Predict the structure.
Amino acid sequence: MESETAPLSSNREFWESRYRDEDPSSPDPEPSPAFTALMEDPALVPPTTGARRALELACGRGGDALWMAAKGWHVTAVDISEHVLATLNERARMAGLTDRLSTRHHDLALSTPEPEAWGLVYANYFHTATDIDRATILRRVSDSVVEGGLLIVIDHGSSAPWSWVQREDHPTPEDLWNSLDLGADWSALVCERRSRIAQSPKNVGGSEGAGSVGAAEGAQGSESAEVRTAWVIDNVLVARRRSTT
Ligand SMILES: C[S@@+](CC[C@H](N)C(=O)[O-])C[C@H]1O[C@@H](n2cnc3c(N)ncnc32)[C@H](O)[C@@H]1O
């Protein structure tokens, strides 16, 4: 949560206008390198038997949802912005992935998708323009994760020079884990800060693009004509639902 000042309804307007105003020449969304590294880590691989069902919250432009669908997951991708979901549906159609990727429009502060036997629940930079009870939302949807399934949450650990919000007091990964209070069924496999170099979107004026958040402390951002780079920190949490058998 980045700003607590706007009324709840403006969160939707905020995101709709951000996505509607996007440069139409922006490249297709890429998956988050932090996420794909987790998904390709043999120690973490989520269940691969049965239907691999994933729920992605706050999917945005959908680089990760498209990547998962291309890897054989059946993905339900949720966002508050109807505009961004329409563009994601079109990308899924162009990529021939409509049988594995479906979108749902929800303001997650008000409603969540119908529970399914998720092998993975995932949220990447689920940061909102108004204060919502994100921990409760994550806990509620994680209730239907299958035994052995994963919850992956990647948050900003710092603010990029181009980010739409600047703050110094990012919670730690441990704060995130404790806030979720998932109970004894769950264990944290990864709960740590990870740094990487991120690129700003093109022509950004104090805003933030998909997968590019947070400048690492003490790091220098560099600037080119259109795209800037900076060290960023991600707070990375991977939790597994224990098997009871
Ligand atoms: C920082 S963006 C991250 C998007 C994407 N996960 C990514 O990594 O590029 C935050 C996303 O959360 C969505 N969002 C914000 N508030 C929401 C809410 N209450 N319900 C559902 N989605 C929401 C926004 O529309 C936006 O796509």
Remarks:
- The pocket of S-adenosylmethionine is lined by residues 11, 15, 32, 58-61, 79-81, 84, 106-109, 124-128, 132, 210-211 (CB under 6 Å).
- The longest strand covers residues 186-199.
